[in-house]
Amino acid sequence: MNDASDDPNLTLLGHSENRLPASPDEAKLETFPNRNAQRDFLIELDYPEFSSVCPVTGQPDSAQLEIRYIPDQVCVETKSLKFYLASFRNTAAFNEDIVNRVLDDLVAACQPRKMTVRGRFSPRGGVRLTAEAAYPDLEEK
């Protein structure tokens, strides 16, 4: 079995990089070949420590992000995903925009068969916001 040093596309895995990207635009989502592309299977990723900044108040926002996808030819490498998600920590954006941005960036990186990104944001003013975006788009009910 190959290790990370065999794949030139994986620059973070197996290296002691600890400098987080300053923004999502600076971050790089890395992928590796899906060795089971002949089968539909579900990958679930949970990031309970997501943080960003409210673009109006400048106050920090926190959330639990859940990513569920059925990969096609490649899978998202989780260390690069961690760095990408952490890069939002100083990014001013509305919660709904964040969920859609994460979905768009992940779909661009790995072209999954299906993907859902859900953000459960901590309550603000007594209101908890949960936003979900899907690829292909959510079906109308």
Summarize the structure.
With 141 residues, the protein is of the alpha+beta class. The protein has one domain: GTP Cyclohydrolase I, domain 2 (2-Layer Sandwich), CATH 3.30.1130.10.
Global mean pLDDT: 90
End-to-end CA span:
45 Å
Written as H for each helix and E for each strand, in order along the chain, the element string is EEEEHHEE
What is the β-strand count? 6
- Specify the structural class: alpha+beta
CATH class: Alpha Beta
CATH domain fold name:
GTP Cyclohydrolase I, domain 2
Question: Stretches where pLDDT falls below 50 for ≥5 residues?
Answer: none
The whole-angstrom Rg is 16 Å
Number of helices: 2
The number of domains is 1
Helix content: 10-25%
Share of β-strand residues: 25-35%
Classified in CATH, the superfamily is: GTP cyclohydrolase I, C-terminal domain/NADPH-dependent 7-cyano-7-deazaguanine reductase, N-terminal domain
CATH architecture descriptor = 2-Layer Sandwich
What characteristic shape results from the CA principal axes? globular
Main sheet record: 4 strands, antiparallel
